[in-house]
Design a protein that fits this description.
The protein is mostly helical and 168 residues long. Among the domains are: 1-45, no CATH class; 105-167, Arc Repressor Mutant, subunit A. Helices cover 65% and strands 4% of the residues. It contains 9 helices and 2 strands. Strands 1-2 form a two-stranded antiparallel ribbon. Strand 1 (12-14) and strand 2 (20-22) form a beta hairpin. Helix 3 (49-65) crosses helix 5 (87-98), helix 3 (49-65) runs parallel beside helix 6 and helix 6 packs across helix 8 (136-147). The longest helix is centred in the middle third of the chain and has 18 residues, at 102-119. The model has no long low-confidence stretch (mean pLDDT 88).
Length: 168
């Protein structure tokens, strides 16, 4: 991406979470060329402030869920502090633009992290502690509701695929 910006003579700054901010006005034709070039790599250019904020919310949630241990503070407080905005505003904006709640997005990200941790041979007890679940049963229930599989069935399927690949 940086190469594309440099080749087009666009001034930019790198931000947290892989964000790039264009620092000087760019002619529409150059901006269109940038969008087309980046689209080939599956990168979308977010040109309006609300889309950018939605992406920052998602990135902050992903960053939070990927930590070794989720913060003990309420997620609403965590997001407000990280993004320096009122949680109600963030929540309403997120729901309006994604047709989903922040809470649901967090659950989806926690389940994705659970899958990764299961593949690393962590126990459900360890995972539920890391992701601040109240119990293993709560994690298992959310996992099954989200994926359609229990964590143990998911693990068996993955282990079966690994064995199949090893024999081929």
């Amino acid at each position: 991406m940086q190469e594309q910006l440099t080749n087009l003579g666009i001034s930019y700054e790198l931000q947290d979470l892989g964000e790039i901010v264009i620092t000087k006005p760019v002619p529409e034709s150059v901006f269109s060329e940038l969008q087309e070039n980046l689209k080939r790599y599956g990168i979308d250019v977010l040109n309006d402030q609300k889309s950018q904020l939605i992406q920052r919310i998602k990135n902050t949630i992903i960053e939070m869920v990927e930590q070794d241990k989720l913060p003990a503070s309420k997620i609403s407080y965590y997001l407000s502090e990280k993004l320096h905005m009122n949680y109600s505003y963030l929540s309403n904006l997120f729901s309006e633009y994604t047709s989903s709640s922040i809470e649901n997005y967090i659950i989806l990200q926690k389940i994705e992290r659970t899958k990764k941790l299961l593949l690393q041979e962590l126990s459900l007890t360890e995972i539920s502690y890391m992701l601040n679940y109240s119990s293993v049963a709560h994690l298992s229930g959310q996992f099954k509701k989200t994926t359609g599989l229990s964590p143990s069935v998911f693990k068996k399927i993955i282990d079966g695929r690994k064995k199949q690949l090893a024999t081929n």
